[in-house]
Amino acid sequence: MISFVLFLSLLSLMTNNMIIWWSVFLMMTVVFIFLNKNVKSYSSLINYFVIQESLGLMFLLMNFGIFQFFIIMMKIGVAPLHFWIFSITNNIFSYNLMWFLTFQKLPFLLILVQIFWFGGLMLLFFGLTVCYLQMFSLKNYKNLLVLSSTESFNWIIMGVFMSLINSIYLFIYYMVLMVMLINKFSKSSSNWLNWETILVFLNMPFSVTFFVKIFSLSEIFKFNTIMILVMLMMMFLSALTFSYWLINMSVKFYDKNQM
Predict the structure, then answer these.
(1) What is the pTM of this model?
(2) Among 63, 177, 178, 181, which has the minimal tally of Cβ within 10 Å of its Cβ?
(3) Taking the domains of the chain in order of start, what are their residue ranges?
(4) Is the link from the previous residue into 80 a cis peptide, with omega within 30 of 0?
């Protein structure tokens, strides 16, 4: 499946034909449904199919202006257009969740690069703000993990606008670590909280999302120095939101026998 997705990604990068792009969207939907059909998460599959195919039809019909840019961002689930992803992730676990957060986004990312709209950078900044504010209201650990992944992906896309090669390297780094980390977490919803999760997603130095954000910030710094100061303040806000995990973990009495 990974080889097939890499082939679709290369195909979407080599052409700018709308029909071929739409065919890539359709094949990615088929791949996701094929991977999740044994999980019995039919509500997630129906939601994903309806959302993706509706957006794919809109992509074909509204092939003018910046509408296609917004449609692709919504198909990927980039903040602030990420409102639909929680209806999908609530019923998928382990490798399927990892696939949804990483490989499923790869062909869409390469198409997004080709229909570049520079004004989209401001939308991505607004999406980061929405993510940080939403983290304060979420109490489900799995949703916090998904939202943290969405926020990290916003950083990667902002880096794409500045430097394509660096961002492809960052995306590969992000995918490899998500493959290693997400599958490690238990399938039970009660065990999403552990010290590994906290240290990985708390933006600690030399952790997973730390490098993604530092390299993206270094690219933004070449473009706008005021913007990087705002982003550093927002990274501190992100650390405050995940302090909720720290407090819960500090007072948690974890006994495997009782579990």
Answers:
(1) 0.79
(2) 63
(3) 1-258
(4) yes
